[in-house]
Amino acid sequence: xxxxxxxxxxxxxxxxxxxxxxxxxxxxxxxxxxxxxxxxxxxxxxxxxxxxxxxxxxxxxxxxxxxxxxxxxxxxxxxxxxxxxxxxxxxxxxxxxxxxxxxxxxxxxxxxxxxxxxxxxxxxxxxxxxxxxxxxxxxxxxxxxxxxxxxxxxxxxxxxxxxxxxxxxxxxxxxxxxxxxxxxxxxxxxxxxxxxxxxxxxxxxxxxxxxxxxxxxxxxxxxxxxxxxxxxxxxxxxxxxxxxxxxxxxxxxxxxxxxxxxxxxxxxxxxxxxxxxxxxxxxxxxxxxxxxxxxxxxxxxxxx
Length: 304
What we know:
By secondary structure, the protein is of the alpha+beta class. The chain has helices at residues 5-29, 144-147, 250-256, 264-303, and strands at residues 58-61, 67-68, 73-78, 84-89, 92-98, 103-108, 113-122, 128-131, 135-139, 151-154, 159-163, 167-176, 181-186, 194-198, 202-209, 214-223, 229-239. It is elongated, with a radius of gyration of 36 Å.
């Protein structure tokens, strides 16, 4: 057993070295899940589940029973932080905005006559929360006969998403007014306004490519040939990896570059183990040589 003790200690030391190397480079070699695995690769898919919002929004302005002669108007209210707030007018989605600091403010277009405004919050899984109070207001266009028919611009989507550097498409519903129509779209990413023309009312598809991941406020304005305008405010989400400006810690940077991280405490332990292993190995070697010398001496004496 004593003859094998140095070998056992040497093997233990090698095992500790292997564990240290693996633990120090694990983050660098661990493969990441891919949304579209290539042949020979793999992907991971997870389903996030959570309860829908239990608290809804509250419309504070405009007040119930208010009357307006201009459109669009601003709808303000309170809401749960971080949720999407979609405002509906007579059951039609007319604008959306993210709840920030517990409140929301969104511009919406009005229909001629009675408008029943309500707000519904949605979480990141598009699960709806309770409906808000209803604010009933009236709209009378005093310039109706002079400028022509009222325009409405709506959408079935208060929020649309796409991966960054891919095209995000948005279907809009345009009604009323007299063509041709001119669209001015601010996609919220600091780029130039997108200008489009549409000859007839109906379904209109607009599209944009976001270069960076983020949440963007999109403002769409349409004007017909008589100068009558409509407005729609919605939320676009560009998903993907956000830009990294700098590593947050030195070991994180080393892991991203595939470099091992220096672990000082385990290294000291390793050195402490190597020293007795080396000493025992040398001692075992000397004992073995001495035994061989004695054995040769005994053989020589027997021959005499």
